[in-house]
Amino acid sequence: MSRIGRLPVTVPSGVNVQVNGSEVHIKGPKGELKRVFTPSVEIKLEGDNIIVTRSSELPQVRALHGTTRAVIQNMVTGVSTGFTKVLEIDGVGYRPDLDGTTLILYLGFSHPVRIEPREGISFEVDTKARQFKVMGYNAETVGQVAADIRKIRPPEPYKGKGIHYLGEKIRRKAGKSAKTKA
Fold first, then answer.
1. Cα 137 from chain centroid (whole Å)
2. Computed from CA positions of residues 122, 124, 130, 131, in that sequence, does the dihedral angle turn out positive or negative?
């Protein structure tokens, strides 16, 4: 049995869960999420716990057992507390800014890059630390938006300029070495 899959998902107070066969609908203070899972994995609501069990020992079903439980846990966490990714900008003249809900990035291009938030996503900017947060209730969407923003100007290996996650280790390269006279 999967070590992750056999753990129950505890539903906190203030979160409403509905299970219809393989469809799970979760509503909480941050938002609501709905997802349809494969019918080979059974999902049951027992009191304040969501129990995930598998129907057979086939490798495909075993792989989906833990994944299904982890996705349901992310859904419950997202609608109750939410998810946050913190990104940092390094480089002379590089900075984030916020215009209403729109994130504006000055990244050394001839124009500022404007990013409109998707549904369920919000931005928060700390201009002094040159950091910004991508926040939302869907873990997949928050991660994808953060990855898309990082892709605009990824950190380069020589000076480390660009957008990177907070705490991300950037592999640095040595520059050209000076020629010596023989």
1. 9
2. negative
Q: How far apart are CA 134 and CA 88, in angstroms?
A: 11
- Would you say the pTM of this structure is higher than 0.85? yes
| Per-residue model confidence as pLDDT tens digits over 84-127 | 999 999 999 999 999 999 999 999 999 999 999 999 999 999 98
Pick the CATH number of 9-80 from 3.30.70.790, 3.30.420.300, 3.90.930.12, 3.30.930.10: 3.90.930.12
Q: Where does 83-165 sit in CATH, by number? A: 3.90.930.12
d(CA 79, CA 34): 11
